[in-house]
Design goal:
homodimer; alpha/beta; eight-stranded mixed beta sheet; seven-stranded mixed beta sheet; 15 helices; 30% helix
Chain lengths: 556, 556
């Protein structure tokens, strides 16, 4: 903060905007960006991230917002680009920590936000949600004018925006998947982006996610046609899974089922939640009502299609329970077909692989993108690297990606007919000063991860995670030394080795010898304890080759 | 075993062979197969597997060989198909547990076996290694005749074999990557396979690894040409990594370096080991000697090429230490180029991604297969799904793959002009009876995983792993209740939450109340301990939403 404040005192020639990514820069997840102009701050999105494998036991990760809390009085409003978890997922944590500010978003986005906030007991009256249309212009504070731009993505009502400030114009694509044939017929407004380019854009911020992947992503319409052909050829029950938020994909499957005289059963909490919100707000239409599993008893196998959770191999999802035979009501059998209409997100490959193998073992027919035969041509609905041709941005900030994506996105921009004059690879917490003359990092503010685990927010730090990692690798060995009346030692272990009386006896002996020697030498008790610790550590390492977490307890 | 023995007593019409996969069936890893004809057993390979992420702290996994130990007197010999870890890696554990038997393998395979055994203190005289050429015919026992067949793969001296028994002929492809332009010019002997087909094959066993992937794998020569072009365009230092066992790839890189006037530095224990064995046995030739890192000081950056370990993101590998700035002697800098000439094995994606991102952050140029621009066209040297056209196998056993690979391999076989009459999807431990009339599973023998962790082999079971998983998710909380003179409770935790005196105090109070009540009611001590356990579990769950592993200790 010191560094940042110091910079404020410099004399500045042109009016400047500060762009301060607090999450989502140098990573994929927990997007949140602050714009600051003089004494006004505007926020874009407040998402969460899912833990990586070494972040053991963590449920989810939210961004640090110290900067926003310390400058709470300056915050004039927030806009939301779309309803994915990495853009709205930390709102229940962020909003209660900030003053009441207007939060702008499109219809489905706010519908999902309301649902999410209510799960956390935050009532509609507690927040100031304001619905916008995807061509609306709004003013935030006195300095920020925001114009929303429709961009196609794997969730409806997705927005980019043009931010006009006294320092210049920022064009932010938001997340996008360019689709020339979207399910709702609503195309990305590339014309508006082109016009903005002609009018003059100072800074372009754009999604770097798939910057390494060549080619185009299949249109949602292509995916639907593949699914229609695939399902038409299936005789038995169909179980289909994809991201619950992919409302268009699910609508298409509902329509396909209707055309092929299959009734749809939705299974899984998040599927039902998205379907309910989407229907209420008019983003999903049912040709006939969903049935419950109990209601399909009279139907033939080829008259049923289940849409279920589990596309990422989540252990408690419907598909995982089906694969492992743990579902209370439904049992898969030969003749059933399972369609995974999504690719594993990096990190989930192993879990998805486990589910797929179990499905094969049951003997059901399994269709998934990796099976690159002619069976399922549907490609991952991810984003594409094709930029909406930023024509005249002076400077470029590759956003929403790990360093490998950001840097390749920057390289890609250099191959355009009119490449940006300057590109900056930024990190979370960087304070990026932007004016007609400047585009540079002038300081940093605190930014990083807050771990959410159970009911606790932020009570788990990297030290706690390190203990978890160590215990997971080697287990734990607890030595309780009781000094009176006669010194003796008890051993308890978890995750160390199988119950082994001989080894336990040896360890107790080593520990006891260390204690007795310490007592004879009249050492302080904490030194006696340390001696026991050291003796047992050396002994265990020598005999087993392992380094369990050792807990020496001394009862005087 | 009971089931198996019972089957032995059935009357059998034709002479029959038993095929008993003890590892490598339904999985990729720890390959070991037993063939039994009457009172003779022959073994193929003895490999290891690497742990999956839920097998926490495990170093490696070896197959259970109870069946072999129980029938030790019948074992007549063993053959090794090639020198990869999943085919020879468990030899140091398996051989000492079996009687001295002849072990046949090609030159490089035995060279790597000798190196491995010597690391475990097993001397040449302790084992009976017999070198064969890749067209040799040998006899094992009185019933088994084995003819080795050269098959190209990502390691030299790779073999399939034709096993002739009184029950019929088995053709086993072994692992393979069909390469029409192999670096050593030694092609797969497809003509011999074709001839075997004409002569009559009863059973085909074939590698299922990439059965889901369409197309062909690039020839090693194609990869070499891509690398030559890539390296020719690099001005600074080059750091290249691939599997250390990919001797041909490394030879090609050495040749490229020589042609481009770069001196080669080998870094990393396994790189040096493979290079040393390969040179000694004539599988690698150096146009000039390797230099050490200390010797390249006088050279310009573009005169140096490092071949280093770390293609899988292994934390202690050279590339990881370079990426994280932990290498004692070498520091990466802008202008350096790093080439990862291999794809991550499933499960290693996250580790490799971490390394790649760190390299980008340092500012070096990074080349890897996923970067699908024109920069590195080298494809993964994995196996291809193209079978060596088994023409006349009557029955087919898809081997070396998870169920998804086995089943898709079986489907692929059905698309051949002359598909096998029967296919069987087998599991480890299945006893598969094979004769002119029969091809079926008639029983099972014990098979499964033995975990190796530190110096311990088999002293870690699934119960211990479950403790590790639980502790990694929620941490551990140890309550020591001391009853005399005045009852009091001490709390120690690891991986639970950050040091929190208030919470500790509350937990101690809850525990103490449970104890005092139990003592007042004169309960037995173990019941008092259970009461404390239950009270704390409920309290912690309510207050934190978590379920740490609880260890209640009572000191009377």
């Amino acid at each position: 903060m010191t560094q940042h404040k110091a910079d404020q005192t410099e004399a500045v020639a042109a009016p400047h905007l500060e762009v301060i990514p607090l999450g989502g820069m140098g990573e994929i997840g927990k997007n949140i960006t602050a714009y600051r102009f003089e004494d006004e701050i505007m926020i874009v999105d407040a998402g969460l991230a899912f833990p990586e494998s070494h972040q053991m036991g963590i449920d989810l990760i939210i961004p640090r917002i110290d900067y926003l809390q310390q400058n709470a009085g300056l915050i004039k409003g927030m806009i939301l680009t779309h309803g994915h978890e990495d853009h709205i997922g930390s709102l229940p944590y962020v909003l209660p920590r900030l003053p009441r500010i207007p939060v702008y978003g499109a219809g489905l986005t706010l519908g999902l936000v309301r649902e999410k906030l209510s799960e956390f007991g935050i009532k509609d009256g507690d927040v100031d949600l304001r619905e916008i249309g995807l061509t609306d212009k709004i003013r935030i504070g006195t300095h920020f004018q925001v114009e929303f731009i429709r961009m196609t993505h794997s969730i409806p009502d997705n927005a980019g925006y043009i931010l006009t400030t006294p320092a210049g114009v920022v064009l932010h694509t938001g997340d996008f998947k360019l689709d020339e044939e979207p399910s709702d017929g609503k195309l990305s407004d590339l014309a508006r982006i082109e016009q903005a380019g002609k009018d003059g854009v100072l800074l372009l911020l754009s999604d770097s996610t798939n910057a390494e992947r060549p080619g185009r992503t299949a249109s949602e319409a292509d995916v639907a046609r593949s699914l229609e052909t695939l399902i038409a050829g299936i005789k038995g029950r169909v179980f289909m899974t994809t991201f619950a938020s992919n409302v268009h994909r699910i609508q298409n499957v509902i329509n396909i089922a209707h055309r092929q005289s299959r009734r749809v059963v939705m299974e899984g909490r998040s599927m039902l939640k998205y379907a309910q919100v989407s229907q209420q707000l008019g983003y999903m239409e049912l040709p006939e009502p969903f049935l419950t599993n109990d209601e399909v008893g009279g139907l033939q196998d080829q008259q049923v299609l289940y849409v279920c959770t589990g596309s990422q191999g989540q252990p408690m999802s419907v598909l995982s329970r089906l694969a492992f035979g743990n579902h209370a009501k439904i049992a898969l059998r030969r003749g059933d077909s399972v369609i995974l209409s999504s690719n594993p997100i990096p990190g989930n490959e192993e879990a998805v692989n486990l589910v797929i193998n179990r499905l094969y073992e049951i003997g059901v027919d399994v269709y998934y993108p990796h099976l690159q035969g002619a069976r399922l041509r549907a490609r991952q609905p991810g984003r594409t690297r094709h930029d909406p041709e930023p024509r005249a941005a002076q400077v470029f900030l590759p956003w929403h990606g790990e360093p490998r994506h950001q840097i390749n996105h920057a390289r890609l921009a250099q191959t355009l007919p009119r490449p940006p004059k300057r590109t900056l690879i930024a990190k979370n917490g960087d304070v990026i000063r932007l004016s007609q003359d400047e585009f540079k990092v002038t300081g940093t503010v605190p930014a990083g991860a807050v771990y959410v685990d159970g009911l606790g927010v932020g009570d788990i730090g990297d030290d706690v995670l390190l203990d978890r990692v160590n215990m997971s690798q080697e287990g734990i060995l607890i030595m309780t030394a009781v000094l009176h009346p006669t010194p003796h030692v008890e051993i308890v272990s978890r995750g160390f080795v199988r119950a082994n009386r001989e080894l336990d006896g040896q360890i107790r002996k080593v520990a006891l010898e260390a204690i007795e020697q310490g007592l004879r030498e009249k050492k302080r008790l904490e030194d006696v304890r340390d001696d026991m610790y050291g003796a047992v550590r050396r002994f265990v390492r020598k005999v087993t080759g392992r380094n369990p977490v050792l807990i020496p307890l001394l009862v005087d």
